[in-house]
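I would love for you to help me understand the pair of lines that follows before we discuss the fold together.
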Amino acid sequence: MSDLKRTSNEAPLKEVIDRWLKAYGLDAKMKEMDVIQAWPELMGTAVAHRTKSIKIRNKTLYVSLESSVMRDELAHGKSVIIQRINEYAGFAIINDVWLG
């Protein structure tokens, strides 16, 4: 039964994966994917239903929308979008929004 005891050099799997992602610079990319998945939660269903595509590249959020009216409305609230997304991510994952 002593073979099953945890030694001091063992770590929980989550901790090991987090360190591995950070070491290879993939933690920010994973957070980007989390933000994209949370788009409906962050912006609401009305915006989510009119969103054709969304991606993050070089700290810029690119959102393609079906509605020109929605695009104009969101253009006026870029700072709110940036704030919501960065708060959700826990760090400044984006610093600009491009609406197309």
Remarks:
- DSSP finds six helices and three strands in the chain.
